[in-house]
């Protein structure tokens, strides 16, 4: 493998969750053209629906989105083959997201079905130890079917502090909790965002002023929130995630490298919406079909946007115009069974 090679690991749903995948697969990425070449299965593991990497070691982490949730850590060899290291119980059901803290010392995991966040200390080699905490959220929302209780959907550690943001679809909240780096325990959660009832916060992205943009899975909106001097961010505005008149379920939200453009994947209409972001408001500039069905996740790599279309079993590639910010479909889709997450990997490892 060449020193400039780039790779993308793909997570999926396996048969236990009604998917058609077998585990984590690997594709080679051409950085100049954006083309993906599927290389095959890298590791068999049940429903690795979200993936993350250690910032300084060749270790990959996957949730196993099961009724009895687990996470599995893998060593990544120089040829990008995966060697299982350890599997740990998350203490909850259907873990849907995980992330490594900025100091590389802890792994945090969102248990969606049971509305809790698990913490695992990471050894000097990046291997997870026994779970050090399980923080259970509380609250509900007006959607009796989807919001009867808390549903932690994403965990976002602050890269420069011990704070962790927790997006809770069930309570219409984004919580902030402080992770003690010694004990590996999370402090009592406080409200970072109080969203409009029925928003269903799914994923968020930080913006330059300390605020954030939030994709509402149930409301079909993108909202933006800014610091106002206290612990809670103020809602400054929102916009429909799609122009579609049907049901819209936003999944992933990303901001471009220069902070001028925001991208939202919309399940239902199966589109990607591009917004201009001026630091105060998001304005829709384009909405393009994904070339697949049920876009669950996206990754923005260089000038290319990759979309994992779960129900059409493919990954589509877009080139993003650096001036206008508008994505254009490029090439043929890459076949992938039930893809749910895309994770860039560069060889050799980039150490932080």
* Number of structural domains: 1
- The tally of strands reads 28
Mean pLDDT: 95
In terms of quaternary structure, the protein is single chain
Number of helical regions: 0
Strand residue content: over 45%
At the first level of CATH, the class is Mainly Beta
The percentage helix is under 10%
Poorly predicted ranges: 348-352
Q: Encode the helix/strand succession as letters.
A: EEEEEEEEEEEEEEEEEEEEEEEEEEEE
Structural class: mainly beta
CATH topology: Methylamine Dehydrogenase, Chain H
Rg, Å, rounded: 19 Å
Q: What CATH architecture do you see?
A: 7 Propeller
CATH superfamily, please?
YVTN repeat-like/Quinoprotein amine dehydrogenase
Q: How many strands, what sense, and barrel or not for the largest sheet?
A: 4 strands, antiparallel
Distance between the termini: 22 Å
Strand ordering within the main sheet: 3-2-1-28
Shape: globular
